[in-house]
Amino acid sequence: MTQTVLVTGVSRHIGARVASVLASDPDVASVIGVDTLPPWGEGRSYDPSGRAQFVRVDLRSSDIADVMSAADIDTVVHLSLVSAPSRGAGRVSMKEHNVIGTMQLLAACQRSATVRRVVVRSTTAVYGSSAHAPAVFTEDLEPADTPSHGYGKDATEVEGYVRGFARRRPDITVSLLRFANMMGPGVESPLTRFFTQPVLPTVLGFDPRLQFVHEDDAVEVLRRMAMEDHPGTFNVAGDGVLLMSQCVRRTGQPSVPLPSPAFRLLGEAARRAGLVEFSPEQLSLLSHGRAVDTGKLAAELGWKPKFTTAAAFDDFLRARGLPGGLPLAVVDALSELVRHRADPRG
Amino acid sequence: MHHSAHDNADDAEGAKVIPLDAARAWRASGVDEEPAADGDCLSRLLSFLRRRVTGDYEVDEFGFDHELTDTVLLELVRPVYRHWFRVDTVGVGNVPDEGGALVVANHSGTLPIDALMMQVAMHDEVGRRIRLLGADLVYQLPVLSHLARKTGHTLACPEDADRLLRKGEVVGVFPEGFKGVGKRFSERYRLQRFGRGGFVASAIRAGVPIVPCAIVGAEEIYPKLGEVPLLSRMLGVPYVPITPLFPWFGPLGLVPLPSKWMIEFGEPIRTDEYGPAAADDPMVVFNTTDHVRDVIQQILNELRLRRGHAFPPFF
To answer: Do B59 and A141 touch (CB under 8 A)?
Structure first.
């Protein structure tokens, strides 16, 4: 049986890739991509097969219900979760987009007679970052400190509505995916912007564990979830962790450790100057870090992400052209010197 | 102890045989011995540096950095273990060679130096890595929080304890917590209350043995005579101690007194007979907790007698 898939958030990188990969699947009759902006705004074509169409919909309005009933959608892939306030709009519009947008979409799904499967993108930020938290979160653990602001809070609220929806429509398969921070050549997020700064501010005396998932793996997981029934909540992350100090050393950029109050002040100033966003939740992530267990996903899919956390980060660095740096050059020059001394003929 | 003696014997034998053969081989190939060995050591140091500088080393999901712990941090603590506290470790055969185990020890000394010494004892004498469970205060403090994670330790919570035990690690706990490490000198070698027995429940869930451990000597390093409650409330720490040397001698008061230490691992207490469901039976958990506490107190008393004076040969 062929499917008709609705993908939200297609004007963003991951949304566009998922729509494109689904459109080229023989089991998919058509893909309808929705977002507030057209996906070709940046000159990116996401649909080589021509089986995807774009509908411009403000998710916060009830227009989405009309789109869904008009097209007999049977699978909904909800990726339209914004991780940081955009420069123009700000936090209020981000929250509306994330929370009200999800509510409208789920309301339409609940009314729909055709929808059989709903896949929702969430984030491991729902676990928060805290000194009181266990080192590794499994899906059934509650956060030690419930995220009280930003992306993490939005995602927590979104998950609450998704759970409510799943209770009211037990006949629909609901998959909730908690993604670790995405990394890859095309990913734009607060964290990728953080790592491409010329100088990396870190929190003095803290070295958080970070976990990444490569965009290719994220797309593959979403594709599988959209094509097969995998009900439940799943963590999605690459194997292993990287410490912030390891990440910084891999970028080869200089870092400036700042005491956490100074970090907060600087972040505030940087945000006001429109340079980079530093939210309080980022400060706690950069202090305490977070890691999740991905055993449940591997058991359910019989498949594991191809990229480890470290490999995903390295691929991101390669794409941005950020390898090595001065310390590496010094060490390499030294070892060259030693090799020369040990074997003068060589 | 016997491990290191054994290693030394190996080294002594090796010292007789290998260089002779090697020197002969080198002479035959016409290469001088000295620069080759020198370059080898140097290139190993450089490849270590290269890995560290490029961040190309592994840490586990808890943040444990094996390489840093073994090559840097343990090297720094080892002289204190060997020469300052002259630690004697006995009963190393009681720690299982493989698989999960829960080491339960008494906690004392005002500052948790005993945790460091236990880590050296486990690494050097027993030959296993210990993963200690620490108070959340540790993980709130800058520097200490990431050093604790990098040396293999994590937060004392059932999730982390269960996870480590399931992975077959040796987990160490100090169930007395701050009550033990911060007790007055007059109460030395008297075990305090053992929390709520969460550690016993974790051991039962994982079906791993509990290894009782007694540490003698830490009680005398900073004899705590009193505390400054106002200051500790201001700083948000459990206590600010007054010892014979601190705060009177300033930073000098932070130097621990060189007491003689002994660490003993007692016979393992099995928990696999109960079955995982017993972890939710409070009566089993309480009784086992009391039993473990009694065993440790007993070993502690005997070991204290065996050690004799805290500061030999003076008093």
So the answer is: no
